[in-house]
């Protein structure tokens, strides 16, 4: 066994590109086996991974924060692209203004009855294949708030609704 390890070490030192290509080819051939072994190891050592992850996040707070922000932005871009690319009402395309709208005005809730976050809702939608029949679409923040105040349509749809919005917002 030690002779085989020594041979691998020498190969790795002399021809790193060849060694890496060989290792990659083996991994691709045995990918399912590798993933299953990795998953089992992670499950068997859950506490160890949790401690390591917590230490890593604390030591690399800025890096992790940026990664999470990029991940959420990417998911939001996927959502917007899947559901039309712009606000359904006014056509706004600026990603930072766009939101998820549930036509039933009944936000999704977790099993304990609490509302779930927009990010959790986006993950759920992606996992279920971006369903188009659930009454979910893209609205900008202004149109989304407007439809919640008026009830059925956005202020962009009718000039007469502007007065009702102002009256609803008045103290």
**How would you state the average pLDDT, rounded?**
83
Main β sheet profile: 2 strands, antiparallel
What is the helix/strand order?
HHHHHEHEHH
Please state the oligomeric state of the protein chains shown. single chain
State Rg. 25 Å
Query: Beta-strand percentage?
Result: 5-15%
Helix content: 55-70%
Strand order of the largest sheet: 1-2
Any descriptors?
mainly alpha; 8 helices; elongated
Structure overview:
The chain has 171 residues and is mainly alpha-helical. The protein has a domain at 45-140. It is built from eight helices and two strands; from the N terminus they run H-H-H-H-H-E-H-E-H-H. The protein has helices at 2-14, 16-29, 31-44, 46-59, 61-82, 118-127, 141-150, 160-169; strands at 98-102, 136-140. The chain has a two-stranded antiparallel sheet with strand order 1-2. The model has no long low-confidence stretch (mean pLDDT 83).
Summarize the structure.
With 171 residues, the protein is mainly α. The chain has helices at 2-14, 16-29, 31-44, 46-59, 61-82, 118-127, 141-150, 160-169; strands at 98-102, 136-140.
Outline the fold blueprint.
Layout (H helix, E strand, L loop, with lengths): L1 H13 L1 H14 L1 H14 L1 H14 L1 H22 L15 E5 L15 H10 L8 E5 H10 L9 H10 L2
Antiparallel strand pairs: 1-2
Helix pairs in contact: 1-2, 5-6
